[in-house]
Specification:
501 residues, alpha+beta, OB fold (Dihydrolipoamide Acetyltransferase, E2P), BirA Bifunctional Protein, domain 2, 9-stranded mixed beta sheet, 5-stranded mixed barrel, 22 strands, 28% strand
């Protein structure tokens, strides 16, 4: 007899029947004096390590059983852990009749199993553990997704990510790669003399970016608090306090829409280095990508139907030059000092057939023109230098031109990957910029404008060194380097609409 047990029950069984049947198996195991959930188990090798050893080596491995083929007095099975998969061979004569019968009748795919035995090579050339001793480590109750196709519905994959990881090896590989990307990022930033720190997630004010915050309430102090929308301001205070450089890899929360590029909770790194500027930050981006190439083992990736060349140096564009080329107008026509010239901006939008309602904020109109005329063409990695002061309140102005600031955005695959400034360190100028942001909030109902953080201004008045600063989206970088066009593919537990089932 040759029976393959891919699931513990027949396909026609209801989930209620399957669960009841498997709880009965747990009871049966206990009645035989066997603990189906022991506290610990000592292994000699991870499965992936054992798979590299020579035949005749004695090993003790543990993992989840993913396949079971019963052939009378012998059974082949596959055991899998986080490092790999290995075949085991279980004979009644080797493990004993009682142990074999418990294994054959009460164990099923999905259970965790400890196996002690000697390695040998089967007639088909597969390295296998010849089991001498079996240990039940954990009984599963619910059946795993169908073996050959795994979890294929995206909504189910994201909602039950643990099953996605369990059944889809390529998904697990993405998150292993993400971890390696973050480790490489740390390695480079540490080599730049920056100190990794942690700053508050709950804030009295949500500053450092243009975004709507999530608001919560602190019972003890009886006041509202905000989930941080950026890491910027506390890190700058650390350089005021004397650090030469500091960075944080952390969660950021923005009360915005959900799509393939946005999740309300995401991960970014912000890094600040004294006596540098936005050119120094561009050099840092190129250094990071040289390291990322080593992580993925390739200097190009397929992303959104394009072959993206990741090898520095990267293209550099002047936004004012590109604006003139793509809109036919000088960018200064829509700027009035550190503000937008709204009438001219609206007129340009209408000329270019860009959607523009009376209540659309100036910042939003500008972004739409950028998206439609410039950013959509930035497939290969590109730095776009020098942006309007009106939407960048925390960066230094270009020398001799208060309408533009020393800022770049870095794009690849038409997606924004990084944003960097020559950081503004003049407290008087900083206050006036944030007052302008306050005006945008009040007059244009711009709920995403930056806030006036008086505590940060006070800190600046103690003296802040010139510095370069950068923010990089970890999720966006991972999307690019793994070739995944949706942010949900690179976040372990993305925010989903509540399950209505």
């Amino acid at each position: 007899m040759n029976t393959t047990h891919d699931t513990p029950n027949t396909p026609n069984s209801s989930i209620t029947e399957i669960v009841a049947n498997n709880y009965a198996k747990i009871k049966a195991v206990r009645e035989k004096g066997v603990d189906p959930f022991p506290h610990r188990f000592k292994t000699t090798h991870a499965v992936g390590e054992a798979a590299k050893l020579q035949p005749d080596t004695q090993v003790t491995i543990a993992g989840r059983m993913m396949l079971m083929r019963v052939m009378g007095k012998a059974t082949f099975a596959h055991v899998k852990d986080g490092t790999g998969k290995m075949q085991i061979y279980v004979k009644k004569d080797a493990v004993g009749e009682e142990s074999y019968e418990l294994f054959r009748r009460q164990m099923h795919v999905g259970d965790f199993l400890g196996v002690e035995g000697k390695l040998f090579v089967t007639k088909t050339g597969e390295l296998t553990v010849d089991a001498q001793r079996l240990t039940v480590l954990a009984k599963s109750v619910r059946p795993l997704p169908e073996k050959f196709h795994g979890l294929t519905d995206n909504e189910a994959r994201y909602r039950d990510r643990y099953l996605d990881l369990l059944t889809n090896d390529d998904v697990r590989a993405i998150f292993l790669k993400r971890s390696q990307i973050v480790a490489a990022l740390r390695e480079v930033l540490n080599s730049e003399g920056m100190l990794e720190v942690e700053t508050p997630v709950l804030c009295g004010q949500a500053g450092g970016a243009s975004a709507r915050p999530f608001i919560t309430f602190h019972n003890a102090y009886k006041n509202e608090l905000y989930m941080r929308i950026a890491l910027e301001l506390p890190l700058k205070k650390l350089l005021i306090g004397g650090f030469q450089g500091a960075y944080e890899i952390g969660r950021v929360f923005r009360n915005e829409g959900v799509d393939t590029r946005h999740n309300p909770e995401f991960t970014m790194v912000e890094a600040y280095k004294a006596y540098s500027d936005y050119h120094g930050m561009a050099a840092l981006v190129e250094k990071l990508f040289e390291r990322f190439i080593r992580v993925i083992g390739a200097d190009a990736v397929d992303y959104n139907g394009h072959k993206i060349n990741l090898k520095p140096p990267f293209r550099r564009l002047s936004l004012p030059d590109e604006w003139k080329a793509k809109t036919g107008e000088d960018i200064h026509n829509i700027l009035e000092g550190k503000r937008f010239n709204r009438p001219n901006l609206v007129a340009l939008a209408k000329k270019l057939h860009i959607e523009c309602a009376p209540d659309t904020t100036s910042a939003k109109i500008f972004d739409r023109i950028m998206d439609d005329k410039i950013l959509c063409e930035l497939v290969q990695p590109t730095f776009v230098f020098d942006h309007p002061t009106a939407i960048t309140p925390l960066a230094k102005c270009k020398p001799g031109d208060e309408s533009l600031v020393e800022r770049f955005e870095f794009f690849a695959g038409t997606e924004e990957i990084a944003n960097a400034y020559s950081e503004l360190n003049d407290p008087e100028d900083q206050k006036s910029r944030l007052v302008e942001q306050l005006r945008q909030q009040q007059e244009e109902n711009n709920g995403e404008a930056d806030i006036l953080d008086k505590d940060f201004i006070v800190a600046m008045e103690y003296g802040m060194p010139p510095m370069g600063g950068i923010g990089i989206g970890i999720d966006r970088v991972t999307m690019l380097l793994t070739g995944k066009p949706s942010i949900r593919e690179v976040i372990l537990f993305p925010l989903l609409r509540p399950d209505q089932a």
